[in-house]
Design goal:
The chain is α/β, with parallel strands linked by helices and about 260 residues long. The chain has helices at about 1-15, 60-75, 110-125, 140-150, 160-165, 175-185, 200-215; strands at about 50-55, 85-90, 95-100, 130-140, 155-160, 190-195. The chain contains 7 helices and 6 strands. Residues about 10-50, about 55-60, about 225-235 and about 240-255 have low confidence and may be disordered.
């Protein structure tokens, strides 16, 4: 089964590019209350799979989760109309290994989690997933959670729930991340599925995104044959130069008609 998962992700990474942000994430850019702990500080020690929902102001292990969720939020702010951002972090060292933001205007596959996974494969190869944690501003949809299961990425932490995202007029498949993980139990055993981390912040992001997506009352009609498309964006905010980025100043790709 591991061989099947590697082949699946290898093919996916080859055909889906995505856009990821540079990984220059200095501690000084983070709120003081989210300073980087020692590599193993607050790390989870339980071996049984755990699920749950936490408040955004928890301490201890929660402080570690909050720190990395702030980085996912920073990714999300690059696409303010569809603020789905994600980072992948090494469990032991706390190193940020990959990042991504939703670029669904380019492909319906490019949710933030998938873009971050593609960035990870480009940088580190299709290996080592079980040693990482993915942080994402929104609960993974059934497509993204399935990809995480195929990769055997066992620790997933999110902020806003699918129900909270749906309440801001973003369509969602009615399957939770935990339900998808349970359906994959024949080959996938997560160590941690945790929701609600900094959800009070991300819920506001999604509410603001709804306002940005709502056309003014006097806006012209899209015209015959034109339909609203989920995850269409007016362009991703540039994030500077990285091995997977165009040089600064390159105009964003316009949305497809």
């Amino acid at each position: 089964m591991d061989s099947c998962r590697r082949q699946f992700l290898g093919r996916t990474a080859a055909v889906v590019a995505g856009v990821a942000a540079p990984l220059a994430l200095p501690g000084s850019a983070l709120p003081a209350s989210h300073a980087d702990p020692a590599p193993d500080a607050g790390a989870d020690t339980a071996t049984a799979p755990r699920t749950g929902t936490v408040a955004g102001t928890s301490t201890g292990t929660g402080a570690r989760h909050e720190r990395f969720m702030w980085l996912a939020i920073a990714q999300a702010r690059r696409n303010p109309e569809w603020p789905f951002g994600a980072v992948i972090v090494h469990n032991r060292t706390g190193e940020v290994l990959a990042s991504g933001v939703n670029t669904g205007a380019d492909s319906p596959l490019l949710h933030g989690e998938v873009v971050a996974m593609n960035d990870y494969v480009r940088r580190h190869g299709n290996q080592g997933w079980a040693d990482t944690t993915l942080y994402t501003t929104g609960e993974p949809c059934s497509m993204c959670m399935s990809a995480l299961a195929w990769a055997n990425l066992r620790r997933v932490v999110w902020a806003s729930s699918i129900d909270e995202i749906r309440s801001t007029d973003i369509i969602q498949i009615d399957l939770t991340a935990r339900e998808v993980a349970a359906a994959a139990r024949s080959f996938y055993t997560p160590d941690l599925l945790l929701g609600g981390v900094l959800a009070n912040h991300t819920n506001r992001l999604f509410e603001e995104a709804r306002r940005l997506r709502t056309p003014p009352a006097n806006a012209p009609s899209a015209g015959p044959g034109r339909h609203w498309t989920p995850y269409r964006s007016s362009g991703i905010r540039p994030a500077g130069l990285s091995p997977v980025h165009s040089p600064p100043g390159t105009p964003p790709r316009p949305p497809r008609p």
